[in-house]
Write a sequence for this structure.
């Protein structure tokens, strides 16, 4: 996967988090280029301004196909016409990276959420709240998404929003990442007389990228409307690169259409009479009906609801399963084994979050928020003290990370001082010397 110097890309920002300069869409990189002639540009402008919905729809398609950013304002105007032209214009705006008022883009979200988001992601400063809301939705499932190959599209979607917010150096985004870092302690409690042959630790581990189209089947006389998605940056369908710690892209695919219609549209030749002459009167009638119908579009098929099941079903205290105290014998008098060394448990989630925090900070950041240790039982007081010392270690590391981000103006005031909630997962492996179950911590 291709990497770009994200730290360099975010270097020209102000302390308050807004990019400098007027070119706020320079973050996204369009991977396709076209050079229409002046005569072609004029033909496209004339078609967009036509009162015939067939002409206007083809004008919107050609503007997007040839990358005519100069047509952006006219395309925004088409989004106020019937559903046919709204869909064609929105697709074209995503292709040219055109600017659109945030309020209007929000109104178009029900038409095709992913295409609307493709427009927003190319101008993150203008649509920050829309992107952040989508990020929060995707972020809710991030712990299950990271490391799951089957959910790679969901992770790519999260990264797209994160890349945009990182480019903005958004403080609320940074605070969300800091608060989401995994913090936990895995403790294996053993008896002084146990034989330790080896030591193993337990490792516990949105707005979707799919699009359902515009709710209608394209006719032979209509221009194709693209389906947008967010994918890994090396995908063949990529048309816009969204750079960050891990690059992703906006991808677009479109259905087949009659090339002869496109040729006539780009050549400035009449469309309606020609379409009728080759026997497509039914297609024209459907175009006219659809262009005038402002009713609701067909709803995309709702995803099947799956009831979440918590297999662990615990209250967060890490209640251990302990052998009955009555079955334990006294440990041998000469039994002495040492506590195990402290280990940092791998956390794919923390690695993902730290990559973005490091990019924001401009330096590599480290945080060992998940610790694992073997503790030799000598009594409840020593056990509690050991666990609390590990909690203090994680809290101190979290506070250091928070102060670094706050010093770089990346957190809201006072947010860095919030202490994380640290879960303790204890495994009771004692075979002797204990007269009670492990205390809940």
């Amino acid at each position: 996967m291709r990497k770009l110097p994200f730290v360099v890309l975010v270097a020209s920002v102000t302390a308050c988090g807004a990019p400098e300069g007027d070119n706020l869409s320079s973050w996204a990189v369009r991977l396709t280029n076209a050079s229409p002639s002046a005569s072609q540009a004029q033909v496209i402008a004339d078609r967009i301004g036509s009162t015939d919905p067939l002409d206007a729809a083809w004008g919107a398609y050609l503007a997007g196909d040839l990358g005519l950013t100069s047509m952006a304002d006219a395309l925004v105007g088409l989004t106020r016409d019937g559903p046919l032209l709204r869909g064609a214009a929105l697709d074209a705006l995503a292709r040219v990276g055109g600017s659109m008022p945030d309020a209007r883009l929000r109104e178009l979200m029900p038409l095709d959420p992913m295409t609307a988001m493709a427009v927003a992601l190319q101008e993150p400063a203008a649509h920050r709240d829309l992107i952040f809301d989508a990020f929060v939705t995707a972020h809710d499932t991030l712990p299950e998404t990271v490391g799951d190959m089957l959910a790679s599209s969901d992770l790519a979607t999260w990264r797209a929003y994160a890349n945009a917010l990182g480019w903005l150096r958004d403080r609320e985004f940074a605070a969300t990442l800091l608060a989401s870092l995994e913090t936990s302690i895995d403790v294996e409690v053993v008896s002084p007389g146990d034989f330790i042959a080896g030591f193993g630790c337990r490792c516990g581990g949105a707005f979707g990228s799919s699009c359902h189209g515009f709710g209608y089947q394209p006719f032979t006389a209509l221009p194709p409307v693209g389906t947008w998605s967010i994918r890994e940056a090396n995908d063949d369908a990529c048309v816009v690169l969204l750079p960050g710690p891990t690059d992703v892209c906006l991808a677009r695919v479109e259905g087949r259409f009659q090339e002869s219609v496109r040729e006539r549209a780009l050549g400035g030749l009449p469309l309606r009479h020609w379409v009728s002459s080759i026997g497509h009167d039914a297609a024209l009638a459907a175009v006219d009906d659809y262009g005038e119908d402002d009713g609701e579009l067909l709803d995309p098929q709702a995803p099947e609801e799956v009831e979440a099941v918590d297999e662990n079903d615990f209250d967060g205290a890490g209640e251990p399963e302990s052998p009955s105290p009555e079955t334990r014998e006294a440990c041998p008098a000469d039994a002495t084994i040492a506590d195990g060394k402290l280990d940092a448990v791998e956390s794919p989630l923390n690695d993902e979050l730290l990559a973005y925090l490091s990019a924001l900070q401009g330096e590599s950041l480290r945080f060992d928020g998940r610790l694992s240790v073997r503790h030799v039982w000598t009594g409840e007081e020593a056990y509690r003290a050991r666990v609390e010392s590990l909690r203090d270690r994680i809290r101190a590391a979290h506070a250091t990370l928070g102060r670094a981000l706050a010093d770089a103006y990346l957190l809201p005031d006072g947010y860095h001082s919030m202490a994380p909630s640290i879960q303790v997962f204890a495994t009771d492996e004692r075979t002797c010397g204990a007269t009670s179950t492990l205390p809940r911590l």
Q: What stands out?
A: The first strand starts at residue 29 and ends at 30. The chain has a mean pLDDT of 78. The CA atoms of residues 79 and 269 lie 24 Å apart. The radius of gyration is 29 Å.
